[in-house]
Amino acid sequence: MAGHIFHRVVNSAMSRVIAATMVISKQVREYNDIEGLGSGILLKLNGDIFLVTAAHLLNHENWHLLTIPGDNNSLITLQGELHSSYLTQEDGSNIDFSILKFYPKMHKYLSRYTPFTEHEIMVNHPPVSGDNYLVCGFPFRKIKKEIKEGVIIYTASPLILLTYNVSPKRYQKNNFSSDTHMLVQFQQKLQAFGSEVFTRAANPTGVSGSGLYFIPAFDEAHVINPRVSVIGIMIENHKDKGFMVAIRIEPIIEVIRNTFPDQNLNLDHPKQKFHAGTIYKGDYTTNQHLSEQGEKSPPIEE
User: Fold this and answer.
1) Which SUPFAM superfamilies match (predicted)?
2) Dihedral over Cα of 279, 283, 289, 291: its sign
């Protein structure tokens, strides 16, 4: 019975998470096609809708080519105001996140999603020792293309991993700070709850931009009313070393709080100090102009 409840809680949490998660793809215009890049999650704060993902997926260099799925197999362009930590791929920084605030006119195209709200975001999460962490998103390798009656249809299968926080020594060894990042275990072999049977874990390649979530308990109450909290965004995959990396949600929330004055968030400030890096900012019109001019130098916000 315990194992049955466990899986029901995970499935309930997964259903909630998937409703706020989307595939991010790049248009390949010369072939009328798209190339899957990774995932992103939606937050709805004080009536505004934000797309949050990894900066190496969404940034000012590729913004004009990116889309997310809409209703009826449509593709939605990312029209809004972008704030991104992206510098260059050779920069070496592990501060890796982008925040896109959609223009209000775009909200009607996002009706298929149920964004996370303020009470589903957990700041200052103290890591626990159990298997209470869920990684869930749409890796690019799980995006499939079919042609039905002359229409191109894209489908995506989610990656779902239940995992746990790694030891403080592994943070130090791999030059990550627990103030800004969370490292979670990647196991090649998984054991089903209450079983001696092992299965091979799904390949996490392409997990960037997926959410990292905390499930507080596995009981009947959490099947009926699943409690799952956003605590980070996946940015790196080190499966050869046995772990994956997420940037914590605190830097992202603080950038939203400080960038958009109307966001009077009922969320605590971070307990730990962190440096969010240099944030590049711009809007869709600016991006179109830069793209047409072949330039890659958006405005900078410290």
Assistant:
1) Trypsin-like serine proteases (SSF50494)
2) positive
